[in-house]
Design brief:
Elements: E1 2-7, E2 26-27, E3 30-31, H1 32-41, E4 48-53, H2 58-68, E5 75-79, H3 84-98, E6 106-111, H4 119-132, E7 134-140, E8 164-173, H5 174-182, H6 186-191, H7 195-201, E9 207-210, H8 221-235
Parallel strand pairs: 1-4, 1-6, 4-5, 7-9
Antiparallel strand pairs: 2-3, 6-8, 7-8
Protein name: Putative ribitol-5-phosphate cytidylyltransferase
Enzyme class: transferase
Keywords: Cell wall biogenesis/degradation, Nucleotidyltransferase, Transferase
Amino acid sequence: MIFAAILAGGIGSRMGGTDTPKQFLTLGNKPVIIHTIEKFVINEDIDKTIVLTPKNFINHTNSLIEQYIGKNDDIIVIEGGQTRNDTLMNSIKYIEENFGIDDDSIILTHDSVRPFVTHRIIKDNIEAARRYGACDTVIPATDTIVESVNGTTIESIPVRDYYYQGQTPQSFNIKKLFNLINSLTEAEASILTDACKIFTLKDEDVYLVNGEVTNIKITYPYDLKLANTILEDKND
């Protein structure tokens, strides 16, 4: 089976000026998270879409889904975790307990606040995860990359041609991901905030899927303004 895990566990503290997590803010005429969920629900290859939210937003999320999408047994809302990796593990445990995991099980993990992911990106993620076991959606870095360890002076300026900006989805063979997570030491687990980094830490290849510059992550107030502009252009 193929699963999508929509990671909506954050509270959006960087958005500022609102107590509402950023994934529930309005984009166009509906919440950001609904735009995102819809992209995965309409994909015929995805069997179940699992949405992971803070516990106190589970009922609210279910209400929004029923309001904007309608009742759909293929959308499941469960509690996220304290960290991104905890949230990811919650999705895997749910899949294991309710559907089972076999050698062909695939999971696409996606930020709830990236509402402009395209069908092509999703399709390419599914194909790459099936073929290679792990993939990350990226776009080439356009700005010069500057490294500073102390935050005051430049340590190095690496060759930009070799650097990419990570987006999501990040997609994996579930059994492979589960085994790697369980192999982490406590020290390794404490510093990991990215699922692909788990693979690289264990010397496992992660293949690149081409993203889109419009596949933005809504983090700050300006991002929401930009997202509304992108949406208007898409609707013209």
